[in-house]
Specification:
Blueprint: E1 2-3, E2 8-13, E3 16-21, H1 31-46, E4 52-57, H2 80-88, E5 94-98, E6 101-103, H3 105-111, E7 115-119, E8 123-125, H4 139-147, H5 149-158, E9 162-163, H6 164-170, E10 175-177, H7 180-194, H8 209-213, H9 216-226, H10 233-247, H11 250-265, H12 268-283, E11 301-304, H13 308-319, E12 324-327, H14 331-351, H15 356-365, E13 366-369, E14 380-383, H16 389-402, E15 408-411, H17 418-423, E16 431-436, E17 445-450, H18 456-468, E18 472-477, H19 484-501, H20 505-515, H21 521-528, H22 530-540, H23 545-552, E19 565-566, E20 575-576, H24 578-591, H25 600-620, H26 627-637, H27 647-654, H28 656-670, H29 679-687
Bound molecules: acetoacetyl-coenzyme A.
Length: about 700
């Protein structure tokens, strides 16, 4: 065995050269790997004793793609295209031994090999679009030659991986093997014995020539893939490049792909998406967590309350294979809650997103009871009852008496004081907030709220539980609304003001949707139910004249057919309502507010800058430890478009100075001192500083 460099080794066994990469944790194709691979393949080709080559990896997976931390920095040669060209040009058969995941550049290098085998549990795909990129090492040219341009465009624009079985059916791999390297060696020997011709993927024309003659089906597939992706650069570039695969000669297609990649990689959208990639992984890390703190193992869970949130949370446990009991107060509520869960799963089965047997297994993991003693031997309890502090305290007092020592006691509160909840128990260290987002079984974000009492073990268990449930956990501090809802409250205040001052819900929503949110704030409010905010406002003695009046008139949003918009005959499509404008005009008159036309830029600034200002306050107070955590909260909990990077990333693009000046103007206009720039924002404005300098997901080159 020869160690080519720190990452690559080469061994020749029985005429087969084994080139093995070892670059933990994910075998990213960084510079040293690329350099080592080129040296190894050249050596294998030159070695007369070598008749075939197997390319594999050590560790958890085949190559997970290019090393994303190198993007945006000057490329060190050899690039991945050059590495792939070396393997492809080998006169000796090259077999890729895929296992774990082969993603992005990882799949692309495999596509440059003459043959590919994979273990049965392997997954492979080209997810570059999720980083605001397109596959930049031949993926858009070679994949269409294997699976056909229609399938390739769908797969590349979605960025979703496929399993080995599907890959075999589609022609991406040649065989499923029990053990990747041994299977690849056996495959290579068969190729030699049977003198199987070496047809490079680049030379396969059978699936692309017919599409060149008649591209209609491709254009339809491309259109379908691009639906709802207007304004996002990478998916359109993916389509253009896949189209090149059948319109241009291979080399020209490859060169065009490289040009498109280089354009995207320096763009703000890809920088934003790479920022979110690293920020997401950073967010669960707790800076003051001592080494050696181990999370508790979660084998059994209890959810208190079988309403929409409680049911959704119970589904998360069942989806992760953890038995879960729902505790309710009456048989009627319990039956309703369990029926809702059943129905939600049934819809997934109807849509083809879930198999019936998988649904049956999940449903069987969820039990309902009125008996609180079920809590006695559970590892985690999540309370998901009505948002009322007295009730929550009472429940936690009860949990304290029944739960075994060490059970994690979590509240799904979205705004309330977790310190106060913890203090209603004799073990405040075991209490945290676990704020799920609605629908809890779908939304990825989980705000983990540490109170001033939470023990490190409790925080570690909450983070581990979040990961177990497939969520993106972000650890935040305890304050009114935590990170997400606290910032949202600023936007809601501006929403109310804008209505009074003359803006229409549809105009404001349009500005927010144009930025990339799936919904504007009023449509969102109608979906969530306007009564929720109304109840919170009443509890706090806060007034919102227009929204309060809508609720007083029974307009709670979609569920009552009317809210800020009208929803006719059960439709979910918001239809603007002149009555709402009239109501806003009456309220404005009563309050002496002069109505005017409000420009799109003003709407934009008032929707986003007050939230950015609040983000700065949240950082000042240490409620979030990194600016990038706030971006993760907004990207995964509130629909902030990932290609806009989150509020702090976006603020850095605009510049703190511009935001400060605008806020000062709006503070003076409204008389709202809360709109005055925070000390941190002012400091950033004065020094030219950036949010990304404050606790960074720093791997994205500026
Ligand atoms: N480059 C650099 N670092 C990477 C990386 C990559 N491609 N993929 C993962 N990492 C890092 C993560 O940041 C993380 O680092 P920390 O431990 O410091 O936080 C570590 O590797 C482990 O990653 P995960 O926590 O995500 O591990 P996982 O086991 O949960 O998931 C994975 C593994 C599915 C491979 C996931 O990491 C992933 O999806 N990675 C990205 C894959 C990808 O997008 N590949 C395409 C790259 S672009 C490309 O290849 C362009 C091209 O055409 C040339």
């Amino acid at each position: 065995m020869v160690q080519i460099n720190g990452c690559i080794e080469l061994a020749v066994v029985d005429g087969v050269a084994l080139i093995l990469a070892d670059n933990p944790p994910v075998n990213a194709l960084g510079h040293a790997v690329r350099e080592g691979l080129v040296a190894a393949v050249r050596q294998a080709v030159a070695d007369a004793a070598v008749r075939a080559i197997v390319l594999g990896c050590k560790g958890r997976m085949f190559f997970a793609g290019a090393d994303i931390t190198e993007f945006g920095k000057p490329l060190k040669q050899p690039g991945l295209q050059e590495v792939i060209a070396e393997f492809e040009a080998s006169p000796k058969p090259v077999v890729a031994a895929i296992f774990g995941t082969a993603l992005g550049g990882g799949l692309e290098i495999a596509l440059g090999c003459h043959f590919r085998v994979a273990s049965a549990d392997a997954r492979m795909g080209l997810p570059e679009v999720k980083l605001g990129l397109l596959p930049g090492a031949g993926g858009t040219q070679r994949l269409p030659r294997l699976v056909g341009p229609q399938k390739a465009v769908a797969m590349i624009v979605a960025g979703a991986p496929v399993g080995a079985k599907q890959a075999l059916a589609d022609g991406i791999i040649d065989e499923i093997v029990a053990e990747p390297v041994a299977g690849a060696v056996a495959f290579a020997k068969r190729v030699l014995a049977e003198a199987v011709p070496l047809v490079k993927v680049r030379d396969r024309a059978a699936k692309i020539l017919p599409v060149r003659e008649n591209p209609a089906a491709f254009e339809a597939a491309a259109k379908a893939a691009l639906k709802k992706l207007a304004g996002v650069d990478a998916p359109a570039a993916c389509v253009e490049s896949v189209r090149n695969s059948f319109m241009l000669p291979f080399e020209a297609g490859l060169a065009a792909e490289r040009d498109l990649f280089m354009k995207l990689v320096v763009g703000d959208q890809s920088r934003a998406q790479r920022h979110i990639f690293f920020a997401e992984r950073e967010a669960a890390k707790v800076p003051d967590m001592p080494a050696g703190v181990k999370p508790a193992v979660i084998k059994k869970a209890v959810v208190i309350g079988g309403g929409t949130m409680g049911g959704g949370i119970a589904m998360c446990f069942a989806n992760a294979g953890v038995p879960v009991s729902i505790v309710e107060t009456t048989e009627e509520f319990l039956a309703k809650g369990l029926a809702r869960i059943q129905q939600t799963y049934a819809v997934s089965v109807e849509r083809g997103a879930l198999q019936q047997d998988a649904m049956d297994k999940r449903v069987a993991l969820i039990t309902g009871t009125l008996d609180w003693n079920v809590i006695a031997d559970t590892d985690i309890v999540i309370e998901a009852v009505f948002e009322e502090i007295g009730l929550k305290k009472e429940i936690f007092g009860k949990l304290d008496k029944i739960a075994k020592p060490g059970t994690l006691l979590a509240s799904n509160t979205s705004t309330l004081d977790v310190d106060a909840i913890a203090e209603s128990t004799s073990r405040p260290g075991d209490v945290v907030g676990m704020h799920f987002f609605s629908p809890a079984n779908v939304m990825k974000l989980l705000e983990i709220v540490r109170s001033s009492h939470s023990s490190m073990a409790a925080i570690a268990t909450a983070v581990a539980a979040g990961k177990l449930l497939g969520k993106i956990p972000v650890v935040v501090g305890n304050c009114d609304g935590f990170v997400g809802n606290r910032m949202l409250a600023r936007r809601s205040t501006e929403c109310e003001r804008l209505l009074l001052e003359g803006a229409k819900p549809q105009d404001v929503d349009a500005v927010v949707v144009k930025f990339g949110f799936p919904m504007g704030p009023y449509a969102m409010g109608d979906l969530a139910g306007l009564d929720v905010g109304w109840r919170i406002r009443k509890g706090r003695g806060v007034k919102a004249p227009v929204s309060d009046a809508l609720c007083e008139a029974g307009r709670f949003g979609q569920k009552t057919g009317k809210g800020y918009y009208i929803y006719e005959n059960g439709s979910r499509v918001p239809v603007p309502d002149a009555e709402v404008i009239e109501l806003a005009a009456q309220k404005a008159e009563a309050l002496g507010i002069k109505r005017r036309n409000i420009s799109e830029p003003e709407i934009f600034e008032r929707m986003f800058y007050p939230m950015i200002n609040e983000a700065a306050r949240i950082l000042e107070e240490g409620i979030a430890v990194r600016a990038s955590d706030i971006d993760v909260v907004w990207a995964y909990g509130y629909g902030w478009p990932v290609w806009q990077g989150g509020p702090c990333f976006y603020a850095d693009l605009v510049g703190a100075k511009v935001i400060c000046e605008a806020l000062e103007h709006y503070a003076a206009m409204s008389g709202d001192a809360g709109l005055q720039p925070s000390a941190l924002l002012r400091k950033l404005a004065e020094t030219g500083g950036k949010f990304s300098d404050i606790g960074v997901a720093a791997k994205v080159a500026a």
